[in-house]
Amino acid sequence: MLPAFLATVLFSLSVIFASRTTRILGGTTANLYRLCVSTVLLAIWAHAFGKGLGGGAFWVFFLSGCIGFGIGDFALYQAIPRLGPRLTILMVHCLAAPFAALTEWLWLGTALTLAQIISSLVILSGVAIALAPREHLHLAPKALAQGTALGVIAALGQGMGAVVSRKAYAIAAHSGQGIDGLSAAYQRILGGLVFAALPCLWIMMKNRRTSNKSGEAAGAVMENKRRTIPLWVLLNSLAGPTLGRL
User: Fold this and answer.
1) pLDDT grade, residue 211 (50/70/90)?
2) Which of 40, 119, 186, 193 has its CA 20 to 30 A from that of 241?
3) pLDDT of residue 61
4) pLDDT of 45-99, one tens digit each?
5) What does pTM read for this prediction?
6) Band of residue 131 on the pLDDT scale cut at 50, 70, 90
7) How far apart are CA 42 and CA 241, in angstroms?
8) Residue 167: exposed, middle, or buried by beta-carbon count in 10 A (0-12, 13-18, 19+)?
9) What is the 3-state secondary structure (H, E, C) of the chain?
């Protein structure tokens, strides 16, 4: 229970830190920077103290990263500027659990008990209430619809990625090698980085061309905000993909 609680706290902090970077850099750029920093931090640990690329289940962890870090986090960082960090984290964390349970049942045959099914329905009901339009009249209908769709995709990516990771841990254990959490996170984030890098770079180049055509960027206020970006990116990288995956 304690590791699960700490992971929830760290991921919640990660979204708060992410909201800071997305306000200045945009969701696509903020996500790519976070993945790059986290990859470096996890690589240092994995190759110095962990399993590196070993463990007997690299490609399964890599696939998990493509789904979770790649699809899930890409959608997450697009949802944050549209819905805000509070509503985004509520959607993703609450919906990821039932999506993971459904994926695990269809793929691995792990069935839920009646109590677990009822609990999942309660969770979904709570999310539906939280998304009620009367609670978010300040959000434009288009932004709310896009953010909700992206939040669902992010939750699917998180849930399915977690199930694939569980399968990878089982494969590693069956091979007799085993793997620590940070090395597994490193192998996963490689998949996410490869999956997300090309679309992220394309969107960043497109946005840069657009900003160049529109004239000079903001002045001293924006420049002061940009000076804090390395700190927020580092905190986001530590709280989410690094320590949060431990």
Assistant:
1) low
2) 119
3) 95
4) 999 999 999 988 999 999 999 999 889 988 998 998 888 888 888 888 888 888 8
5) 0.82
6) low
7) 9
8) middle
9) CHHHHHHHHHHHHHHHHHHHHHHHHCHHHHHHHHHHHHHHHHHHHHHHCCCCCCCCCHHHHHHHHHHHHHHHHHHHHHHHHHHCHHHHHHHHHHHHHHHHHHHHHHHHCCCCCHHHHHHHHHHHHHHHHHCCHHHCCCCCHHHHHHHHHHHHHHHHHHHHHHHHHHHHHHHHHHCCCCCCHHHHHHHHHHHHHHHHHHHHHHHHHHHHHHHHHCCCCCCHHHHHHHHCHHHHHHHHHHHHHHCCCC
Q: Is the dihedral of CA 59, 161, 65, 175 positive or negative?
A: negative
> Which is nearest to 156 in space by CA: 31, 29, 71?
71
Residue whose pair of structure tokens reads 């997450």 in the numeric block: 76
Query: Could you tell me the pLDDT band of residue 190, with boundaries at 50, 70 and 90?
Result: very high
pLDDT of residue 224: 52
Report yes or no: 75 and 153 within 8 Å, Cβ to Cβ. yes
- φ and ψ of 236, to 5 deg: -65, -40
Asked if 9 contacts 237 with a C-beta cutoff of 8 angstroms, the reply is no
Spatial separation of the C-alpha atoms in residues 50 and 35, rounded to whole Å = 19
Total residue length of the chain? 246
Structure tokens at 228: 């804090």
Contact 245, 68 (CB under 8 A): no
